[in-house]
């Protein structure tokens, strides 16, 4: 199938859900299929923050969400799960190289295992009318770009035995060499991320994105309508699976305030009103752009326990509803060395955001459920 014209339309910004591109995407990514960036309101959505290579945390959050059983089988019915990115990278250098065995606390080679867990659950959930959506975080992008400064010793070592599924004859001189190859766009894990992960998703009136979509970014990349976001999503996914060159998506990443890296929304004071300058100046254009679709923006990336001494929390409140909800509370073992005195232990407990009928927000932990 020659989709050159469709690709050119996408690059030029006129693509909107081109059926030829989606068809080829589905063929390349089988058994995974293209998921649109805008999904209608759902009865139940659960979302949780960054995993950072902590497999036990991933499983615990899924249990808290009541979407899996002890055999890791889907029991969530039509629930939609959104994990907001950064499933990988368990090392925090803190003055030491992550290539050293002693740098990472309780090191485990679980990055691939975690990604495959979410992939498998996604396939199961679809069969029951539900969905498991994993977003792309900055750490997935770091790995795609060959930057392993946060990859732990064990996760790198695991690639010493890597065999390329397309060309088993390929030889690698080290785990890092093999991992760099495997995560390169179009290769096994670069392609897998493109096929199975999303830059963002809008469900009903809730926007889920790793770090946030702020006004500076909207202006920088010239987003004028919500349909532009579907184009952006497809561009990124086609780049990851090897169908689009970096020059065609460069502007999406060449900005410290992009949707994968910005800390702006994660650092806003909790529980302030939307008309406060600290809120309004950063998301007013986003509110105007999304219109009625902008109820709340749910983000990860900035661990609230360490940055704000908070659990899951909301801010930029309008009509009793937070425009911004931060759900990364730093639960991953990756952050345990920074909490040696257990100052943040309570706020770091595993937590899940539950959304009922699009507008009712609850936090679930091992002790129960309470209103956000």
TrEMBL record:
GO terms for molecular function: hydrolase activity. Residues 44-302 form the Calcineurin-like phosphoesterase domain. InterPro entries: Calcineurin-like_PHP (IPR004843), Metallo-depent_PP-like (IPR029052). Gene3D superfamilies: 3.60.21.10. This is Calcineurin-like phosphoesterase domain-containing protein.
């Amino acid at each position: 199938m020659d989709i050159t014209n469709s690709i050119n339309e996408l690059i030029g910004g006129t693509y909107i859900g081109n059926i030829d591109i989606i068809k080829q995407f589905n063929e390349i990514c089988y058994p995974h299929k293209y998921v649109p960036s805008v999904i209608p309101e759902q009865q139940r959505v659960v979302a949780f923050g960054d995993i950072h290579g902590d497999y036990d945390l991933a499983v615990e959050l899924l249990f808290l969400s009541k979407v899996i059983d002890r055999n890791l089988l889907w029991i969530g019915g039509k629930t939609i799960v959104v994990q907001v990115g950064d499933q990988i990278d368990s090392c925090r250098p803190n003055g030491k190289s992550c290539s050293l065995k002693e740098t990472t606390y309780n090191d485990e080679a679980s990055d691939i295992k975690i990604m495959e867990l979410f992939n498998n659950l996604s396939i199961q959930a679809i069969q029951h009318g539900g969905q498991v959506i994993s977003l792309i975080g900055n750490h997935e992008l770091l790995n795609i770009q060959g930057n392993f400064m946060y990859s732990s010793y064990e996760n790198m070592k695991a690639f010493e035995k890597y065999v390329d599924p397309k060309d088993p004859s390929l030889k690698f001189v080290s785990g890092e060499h093999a991992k760099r190859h495997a995560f390169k766009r179009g290769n096994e894990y670069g392609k897998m991320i493109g096929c199975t992960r999303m830059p963002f998703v809008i469900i009903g009136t809730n926007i889920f994105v790793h770090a946030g979509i702020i006004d500076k970014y909207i202006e920088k990349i010239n987003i004028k309508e919500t349909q532009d976001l579907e184009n952006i999503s497809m561009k990124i996914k086609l780049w990851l699976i090897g169908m689009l060159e970096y020059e065609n998506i460069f502007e999406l990443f060449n900005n410290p305030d992009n949707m994968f890296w910005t800390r702006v929304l994660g650092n806003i004071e909790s529980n302030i009103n939307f008309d406060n300058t600290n809120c309004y100046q950063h998301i007013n254009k986003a509110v105007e752009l999304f219109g009625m679709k902008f109820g709340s923006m749910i983000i990860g990336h900035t661990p609230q326990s360490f940055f704000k001494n908070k659990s899951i929390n909301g801010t930029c409140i309008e009509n009793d509803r937070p425009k911004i909800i931060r759900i990364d509370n730093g639960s991953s073992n990756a952050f345990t060395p920074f909490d040696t005195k257990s100052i943040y232990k309570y706020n770091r407990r595993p937590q899940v955001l539950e959304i009922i009928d699009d507008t009712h927000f609850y936090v679930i932990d091992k002790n129960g459920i309470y209103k956000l």
